[in-house]
Amino acid sequence: MRGRSLLGVSLMASALAMTACAPVPPVGGPDRSEAVPVPGGTCDISWWLSPAIDDPPAEAGRIAAKALEDARVSDSQWSDWYSLLDDDPDLDSVPEIRLRGSAYLESVREDVRVALDEAGYPDTERVIEVYSSLSCT
User: Fold this and answer.
1) 45-89 per-position pLDDT tens digit
2) Neighbouring C-alpha atoms within 13 Å toward the C-beta of 100
3) More confident of the two residues 135 and 13
4) Among 11, 28, 98, 123, which is least packed by CB within 10 angstroms?
5) Angle between helices 96-118 and 58-70 (to 10 degrees)
6) Would you say 72 and 107 are in contact if contact means Cβ atoms under 8 Å apart?
């Protein structure tokens, strides 16, 4: 697992626990969508890129878009994220299907954050936000 902070996990835990309270994604269609098979069903996941600051560098937008497009979730990355979420006692009431979908969602978001960080745009000074939505059945 690359560069996960406790704050990020805590925020993810809060988002999962409050399934009816999700941030509103930017206007327009998603930048990426997938139907992801998980044990017990399928999760429809979408991601949107949006500026986190006024006038973010165009280069950061291009890097984030390419990283989002190219993100491939490895079995180990998905498993690592699932373990991290599953071990959080605040998420004990979240169904496994949703945890598995969330692990996949976070794996893709992580790839975007890592690409931005490697290009000199660290997450601590976020210039591009990756919004997402998750629906599992």
Assistant:
1) 999 999 999 999 999 999 999 999 999 999 999 999 999 999 999
2) 16
3) 135
4) 28
5) 140
6) no
Rg, Å, the chain Cα set: 14
Instruction: Collect contacts of 83-88 with beta carbons under 8 A, ≥24 apart.
Output: 84/1, 84/4, 84/9, 85/9, 85/12, 85/13, 85/16, 88/9, 88/13
* CA pair distance 78, 102, nearest whole angstrom: 9
Q: What is the phi/psi pair of residue 117, to 5°?
A: -60, -45
Residue 70, C-beta contacts closer than 8 angstroms, at least 6 positions apart: 111
* Confidence (pTM): 0.83
- Are 35 and 42 a contacting pair, CB within 8 Å? yes
Give the integer Cα–Cα distance in Å for 84 and 9.
8
Which of 73, 72, 71, 48 lies closest to 61 in space, CA to CA?
48
DSSP state for residue 64 in the 8-state scheme: H
Contact (Cβ atoms closer than 8 angstroms) between residue 38 and residue 101: yes
Q: Which residues are registered as beta bridge partners of 45?
A: 34, 134
